[in-house]
Amino acid sequence: METVKTRIVLADDHAILRQGLGRIISSEPDMEVVGEASTGIDAVKRTRQLKPDLVIMDISMPEQDGIESLRQIVKTCSTRVLILSVHVDPHTISQAVSAGASGYLLKDSLDTELLAAVRTITRGGAVFSPVVSRLLAESSTGGSVRSLNSLTHREREVFLLLAEGKKPSEVAATLFVSTKTVHTHRQHIMEKLGLRTTTELIRFALREGLIKAV
């Protein structure tokens, strides 16, 4: 039986990096590179055309930065996005998470870490480099954080799926409920945990060890 491959688009303005990533990914039996982009605008365009499973994208991109491109991809496509960047400042990382990144790796990551991240994200998980996880976890939540024990069983299920980077519509499909119900659960979760944004929710999950760090 033929292996179903994860279809990937590489978005980086450095051709040599795209070529290197392409060789690493193409050597794996369960992955393939279906397209490349050298600008932020082209990354969005190629994603909409090719509908890949995953985009591996840099933040520093010409024409349109990776954060805005990420935001547009997540808003209009079911494709997940893994950020691969040199940026380690908390503000940039928080922006990426808020925009909908399913993972954030640094460019000094090992090839094995990148491949493991691709597989984890493809299965619906979220992955962050250890330093990224630490910076997110240490960031101020802007409020008192309470225990997961305050959540109902269903709220905990919704919490974990949202923390993995799933959209409300994806959570709804997974749990066989309406998107409106998911939004209601999300509101209750945020109130019970003293959180305000999705970024804070992911920070909470990182502190609790519920999201994988490569």
Task: Give an overview in words.
The structure is a single chain. This protein is α/β, with parallel strands linked by helices and 214 residues long. The protein folds into 2 domains: 6-138, Rossmann fold (3-Layer(aba) Sandwich); 148-213, Arc Repressor Mutant, subunit A (Orthogonal Bundle). Helix content is 51%, strand content 14%. The protein is built from 10 helices and 7 strands. A 7-stranded parallel β-sheet has the order 2-1-3-4-5-6-7, with helices on both faces. The chain is globular and about 50 Å long. It starts with 5 loop residues before the first strand and ends with a strand. Mean pLDDT is 87; it is low at 140-145.
Biggest sheet, spatial arrangement of strands: 2-1-3-4-5-6-7
Query: Briefly, what CATH class of the largest domain?
Result: Alpha Beta
Mean pLDDT: 87
Q: What is the correct CATH architecture of the largest domain?
A: 3-Layer(aba) Sandwich
Helix content: 40-55%
How many β-strand runs?
7
Distance between the termini: 31 Å
Tally of alpha and pi helices: 10
Beta content? 5-15%
Question: Which class of secondary structure composition applies to the elements?
Answer: alpha/beta
Task: Quickly count the domains.
Answer: 2
Largest sheet: 7 strands, parallel
Question: And the CATH topology of the largest domain?
Answer: Rossmann fold
Shape: globular
Helix/strand order: EHEHEHEHEHEHHHHHE
Computed Rg? 17 Å
CATH superfamily of the largest domain: Response regulator
Q: Uncertain regions: pLDDT < 50 for 5+ in a row?
A: 140-145
